[in-house]
């Protein structure tokens, strides 16, 4: 084969390779663009239906409360007052799926023990207006804080409970209100980009693309209240290491409980509620 013939063969091969590379890059960056624009659809999975208040009536003397956020939204949550005077209130910030009614099984033991509970429902969840986002959820939490303060509960009467996504909201509020009684974090993350990196491993710069980052690891050092960290050893959603990193960064006093066999949503099936009550008894 002549040199000229070899060159003739290489040209279409080079063009084919260039076309394949170009196509792969177009598909890759198109996918990145979709994830960037629609990223909140991959973070928040709200149940928008209005939960039936009858679901909580059996748990105590509950009432529907309305709060107004700094950016003008009127939100509804549930407040279950303690039957015992002077008991703290657990302010519950739930995770990214469902709505507050899906967490009633978690609070029953706390109500039986005499604690009050405020189920702080977010914008876009449980019939509330608006769309969820990091800044918006902070506005929501601040509005519930204001309601509690105006109802006569000082910050030192409040125990913040953050579940999964809600752990970022709880840490933010604990940083803003340094006199809260305690902070409980169930299957938390150090920063939201940690699980994002786990899921979208093929986008090494995912952190820089995220609108909502919930940088709890940058805030936890400011939280002086007693802290309980509940980690699922087989956490298939976040992985356990990100929560352990947050625990390591937190100042004392702090307590760590790892449920080695628990998945992301099964810590309570392994006794998390009992350990929360044990922690609360030490306050």
Quick overview of this protein structure:
This protein is α/β, with parallel strands linked by helices and 283 residues long. It has helices spanning 3-37, 54-57, 104-112, 134-150, 165-176, 193-199, 206-209, 216-219, 241-249, 272-280, and strands at 45-46, 62-68, 74-80, 89-93, 97-98, 116-119, 158-163, 182-186, 227-232, 254-259.
Structural features:
single chain, 283 residues, alpha/beta, Rossmann fold, 2 domains, 8-stranded mixed beta sheet, two-stranded parallel sheet, 39% helix
Please describe the topology of this protein.
Layout: H1 3-37, E1 45-46, H2 54-57, E2 62-68, E3 74-80, E4 89-93, E5 97-98, H3 104-112, E6 116-119, H4 134-150, E7 158-163, H5 165-176, E8 182-186, H6 193-199, H7 206-209, H8 216-219, E9 227-232, H9 241-249, E10 254-259, H10 272-280
Parallel strand pairs: 1-5, 4-6, 4-7, 7-8, 8-9, 9-10
Antiparallel strand pairs: 2-3, 3-6
Helix pairs in contact: 4-5
